[in-house]
Amino acid sequence: MINIYFHVIDPGTNPILKILRNLRNQNIKLWFNTSDNKEAINFIKDKSLIEYRKADNGLGCYLWNILDTETVPLYNNDGLFHLVSRYTSDKTDFVCIDSKEYAKNQLVLFQDAIHKGEYPKDFIKIPCYKDWNSLFLYLKNKGLFSFSLTDTNRFQKCANIEPVQGASVYKELATGYYWYMDNFHKTHYEVFDSSGKKHLGEASLDGIIDKKKADKGKHLKL
Questions:
Q1: Which among 34, 49, 97, 133 is placed 20 to 30 Å from 79, CA to CA?
Q2: Residue 192 to residue 142: CA distance in whole angstroms
Q3: How does strand 95-97 pair with strand 199-203?
Q4: C-alpha angle 73/32/38, rounded to 5°?
C-alpha cells in the first residue's frame, strides 16, 4: 500500500489528485488534512484524514529546510505534524504532495521537546513531489506499475515508426498490436491493431485495455 498525503491542494497539485482518483488503484490510499484543505476535500468521498488522536502534543515537530539552513516549527493543525506522529507511532510510510519543491524531493522532519532528554531522535525523511511525472517514476520504482512497454519479452520498439507526442511506438509480439504512452495525460496507453488503422482502446498503466474507449477517429501512421 502506498499512502499519499496531500499537504496542499492548489492549481499545481490538483491535477495529481485528479489523476490518482481516476486511476482508482487499490494499492494507493489518499490522505488529507481538514485544517489545510477544508474546502478542497469536501467533494472527495474516498479520503482518509491524517489527523491522529494519539499525537503527542507535548512534542514539537520541525521541518529542516536545508536550502535556507533553517528549522520551521509545525503546529498540531498542520497535517505534517500528524503525519510524523503516525510515522513514529504506527510505522506508516507516506509520500507527500506539496506545491513547493524540496531539496532531493524529500521532506526532512524531526521531533523535539525540551523536557524529554531522549529527543531529538533520528530525522524522518518523507519523499515529496509537486508534479505527476516525478510521482509516477517513484510509484513505478516501488513496483506499483510493473507493466512496461520496455519489456522485451512482450514488446519490440518500432524504430521505423515516428514517435507520437514524443512517445516511442512499440509492437506487441504476440498480437501485432501497436502501443504508445499518451504523453499528454500520462495516465494511459493508446492501443491500435496490427494495421494501425483501428484504435482498439486505451490501456491502463497496468496494461489492461478498455475497449469502450476505442475511438474511430484515431489512427496510427505506420
A1: 133
A2: 29
A3: unpaired
A4: 90
Considering only CA atoms, which of 203, 183, 174 is closest in space to residue 191?
203
DSSP 75: -
* Distances 70 to 66, 106, 108, 173 between C-alpha atoms, Å: 7, 15, 11, 55
Print burial letters for 126-156: b (CB count within 10 Å at least 16), e (below 16): bbbbbebeebbebbeeeebbeeebeeeebbe
> Count of residues for the chain?
222
155-213 pLDDT, tens digit per residue, is 999 999 999 999 999 999 999 999 999 988 788 999 999 999 999 999 999 899 999 99
Reported as a pLDDT band with limits 50, 70 and 90, residue 39 is low
- The answer to whether residue 38 scores a pLDDT higher than 80 is no
Residue ranges covered by each domain of the chain: 2-141, 155-213
Q: CA dist 201 to 55, 112, 195, 221, Å? A: 48, 54, 14, 16
**Interval 77-132: pLDDT, tens:** 999 999 999 999 988 999 999 999 999 999 999 999 999 999 999 999 999 999 99
Q: How far apart are CA 77 and CA 23, in angstroms?
A: 30
Which cell numbers in the block locate residue 175?
A: 498480437
Beta bridge partners of 62: 73, 110
Q: What is the pTM of this model?
A: 0.79
* 109 strand-pairing partners: 63, 124
Report the distance separating Cα 94 and Cα 182, nearest Å: 28
